[in-house]
Amino acid sequence: MAEADRDALLSVDGTGPFGPPERPMGGYVSLPPAWRQPTEETHGWVTRSLEYAAALPPKVPKARKKP
To answer: What is the pTM of this model?
Structure first.
């Protein structure tokens, strides 16, 4: 998700950093429990996230280590 979208999502009541409080995962957002039921709002965020991920370049595989 783009940084501006992530900042906008974090302004929604009930969202926050994802992961343990002492070490949250960068770039991830935990969603409010109320969002477990699909709504137009949740659909919009999921769509936006999927579009962002689809536009990313493919990951380049790491070179294999020689034994």
So the answer is: 0.68
